[in-house]
Amino acid sequence: MSDFKHISVAQTAELQQAGEVVIADIRDEQSFAAGHIAGAFHLTNGSLQRFMQQHEFDQPVVVVCYHGNSSQGAAQYLAQQGFEQVYSMDGGFESWRGQLPFVTGEGE
């Protein structure tokens, strides 16, 4: 069984800048709209199927939640579905918000 790994905000930003990762934000709709990492996919139960169709299993995925707790379960789930490189971002979006730019609005 595949497992996820932990990743820091800085490491996530590096992978994102290199275009090597998809960010999956699992927070609620209002929180996502209020602010999220640029280019993040809003991953919900309703968008899970679309997410799995749009992204290759060998593409690295970083799961983001509020503080880095809920993302661990979601990351484990994605790893069990066959995604090969899955990470849970330590500190969640609140940590990102304190360190790096983010965008507002619905996004993806």
Automatic annotation (TrEMBL):
The active site is at 65 (cysteine persulfide intermediate). It is found in: Cytoplasm. SMART domains: RHOD. One of its GO terms (molecular function) is thiosulfate-thioredoxin sulfurtransferase activity. PROSITE patterns: RHODANESE_3. It catalyses: thiosulfate + hydrogen cyanide = thiocyanate + sulfite + 2 H(+); thiosulfate + [thioredoxin]-dithiol = [thioredoxin]-disulfide + hydrogen sulfide + sulfite + 2 H(+). CDD domains: GlpE_ST (cd01444). Residues 17-104 form the Rhodanese domain. Keywords: Cytoplasm, Transferase. One of its GO terms (cellular component) is cytoplasm. InterPro entries: GlpE_sulfurtransferase, Rhodanese-like_dom, Rhodanese-like_dom_sf, Thiosulf_sulfurTrfase. Its main location: cytoplasm. Its EC number is 2.8.1.1. Gene3D superfamilies: Rhodanese-like domain. Transferase that catalyzes the transfer of sulfur from thiosulfate to thiophilic acceptors such as cyanide or dithiols. May function in a CysM-independent thiosulfate assimilation pathway by catalyzing the conversion of thiosulfate to sulfite, which can then be used for L-cysteine biosynthesis. HAMAP family: Thiosulf_sulfurtr. Belongs to the GlpE family. This is Thiosulfate sulfurtransferase GlpE. It comes from Rheinheimera nanhaiensis E407-8. The lineage of its organism: Bacteria, Pseudomonadati, Pseudomonadota, Gammaproteobacteria, Chromatiales.
